[in-house]
Request: fold
Amino acid sequence: MKKALIYVFSGTGNTVLAANMIAADLEKVGYCCKLVRITRDYDDSIDINEYDLIAVGYPIHAFNAPQIVKKYIRKLPVAREKKRAFIFKTSGEPFSPNNASSATIVRMLRRRNIEVLTDTHMLMPYNIMFRYKDGLAKQMYLHTEGMCELIVKRITSNEQFKPLRYNVFTKLFAYILRIQWFGAWINGPLFFSKKKLCNGCGKCVELCPAKNISLKDGRAKFHMHCTMCMGCSMGCPQDAIRPGFLTPWKVNGNYPFEKLLADNELPEVFVTKNTKGYFKLFNDYYDRTNKLMEEYGIKVYKPQAEDIPENKVND
Reply:
């Protein structure tokens, strides 16, 4: 049986959901999958030479891969024989600067004799700034399921992949926004838990992939290794955590995907041709990726009717 090794960094859980979807699809075609969470502690017990396929998944932070992911990849050994690999990444918006977020990781993996064949960007709901509506969260989840199936169909077929290339301008833009890494170091110690709300349950300590949180005198304390993944503030059951300068844009409470999927009154498609405002910009991404999924025989969710009554248009 072939073996796949999936490295994944996830703060609020969206990217690990995609990783589990990919693992399930790989297992359907005969792979045995091992999922490894990327944290500040590198796991040197894993021998990449035992695996036929390697994947790296992460959420895009300010049009870049989180620095913790790059530090982890840097510790990987050089494979004895060339390995096939793919990258999957999630973000809350479909804009082109996200495309170059993997450029450095692709280069780092190549130096370790690991060749990245595909780099796939998938949409999942925001964990900062504002909360996405239930309808959009449902559409994003269902579409990501299809995109994960697409990744597996492509990577396990006889498809010939072109070498990955990234636009120089998007690479430059991403490079400039790496200032977010420094912002995380500065803002991390400014996180705090409200005394009246924090009950010392330790959930934030458990959630933090950067090992940046400890409990002191029954309250969460924050240090200088923050990645700004927002796992702690979004996952706090007491809504007690305030993320420093980002407090005005804080989102609390994970998206209830199982509940949304079971709600038959909630349409599978939120963004349509009649959508107005910011989310209208998502149509190009969905049109392009839906067309690609259809080419591979993957189910695509589309509006039930092209003309949606005005009072139901998604603003």
User: Anything to note?
Assistant: The two ends are 49 Å apart (CA to CA). The longest helix spans residues 134-155.
